[in-house]
Structures are given as C-alpha cells and as structure tokens.
Description:
Layout: H1 3-20, H2 26-40, H3 67-81, E1 86-90, H4 93-111, E2 117-119, H5 129-148, H6 160-174, H7 191-197, H8 216-224, E3 229-233
Parallel strand pairs: 1-3, 2-3
Amino acid sequence: MSTELKTTIQGAYSRFLEAKSLKPRYGQRLMIAEVAKVLGDIDTDDEGRRSGDPAIVAVEAGTGTGKTVAYSLATIPTAKAAGKRLVIATATVALQEQIVYKDLPDLMRNSGLNFTFALAKGRGRYMCLSKLDVLLQEGHAQTATASLFEEEGFKIEVDEVSQKLFTSMIEKLAGNKWDGDRDSWPTALEDSDWARLTTDHSQCTNRHCPNFGQCAFYKAREGMGKVDVIVTNHDMV
Length: 237
C-alpha cells in the first residue's frame, strides 16, 4: 500500500471522528487497517487486472464496532486509487437502504472523502413500461366493452381502482415525478398489483423492446456505470 493511500485513509478516519465527536475504537481501527492492507497489496498487471492470488479478508466484529464505517473508509479510497468500482453486497434490503440513505451520506459529510454511490436492485423492483401500456390499453378496452355488454355479465380484469393506479403511474413517469422503482412510489403497493407490472429475465426482450430507451431497470443499470460505489444484495452479485 502506498504512503499516499495510507495518509488518505488515516486522514479520513481522523476527520470523521472529530466531526462526530467520537473517540477511536480499537476494533474499528484494526478492521480498517486489515481490510486496507489486504486490498492495498493486490498485485496487478499493466491493464489493472489482478496478477496474484485472490485477496480475501474475513472480519467478525460485534455490534457497536462501526463495521460499515470501517470497511467503507478502507475500501473506498483503495478502490478509487486503483481505478476500480467498489461493490458492497448485503443480505437484506433493509441493510442496503441503511448504507445508502444513512451510512454513506454520513461518511461523505464528515470524512472529507469525495465519492458517488448508488443502490442496485433486481429487475423485479422496477416497473415494466410495456406491461403498464398493455394494462392501460386493456383497461380502456374492457371498460368500453363492459358498457356495451353489461347485461351479459362481461367481467373487467382491470378494475377501476387498478385503472386509476396505472393511469397515475404513467402520468408520473411522463412528468418525471417517478422513476419506475417500486420503493419510490409514494404509497404502498399491493403485491398482486405489482406482479402485473414487473417482469423477469425470461420475459424481458431487452433491446428489442420498443420501450427500451425509457426502461426504468436499464436506466438504473446505466447509472451504475457512473458511480464509485454500488450497494446491492448477495443475489445480484
């Protein structure tokens, strides 16, 4: 590990502690040092690819150690110095959101480190615009048919409540007031409604889809290539 990288990590940790009026913790300092040492000593070739054995460090630390701060302070400067993008994977969505909405912003404000980050989610967390279009078209068609064949008991599969929801979604998308992410919709969505709106890898036609340019999932994925840190879950890695 270079002297410059050591200084960067040590300085960031000192600033973080001072800004938060905290005292250094032995376990946290040890974790920072061990993670930084392992990653900072990776040998690479002229193209930046690892040329030696895999670099692995396993750390077990108790509650209150400050693990997220420790590994972030060690890995973010190291990854940036190596020209690499850092991926942080967690087991739960709750921990992902804690890192993205609480821990990393706090670290940026108080450590002096300059970095960008984003939350990577699976395809199932994003609305499929093609499915939304179909549901809206079916809703309008069924409403017209129902009024014509009311006496025959015509059944509407896209009911009035769902129709209003889908219409609201398309309007918010068009007005750039929603990004197609289920978690950013202003109200809780029923699983049954969302299941009709999302897709999976086997159903998605990717670049062959007429809505590919406006696809919420692929727009989010494109943004992943522009950040320093990606936070995701184990299933995505």
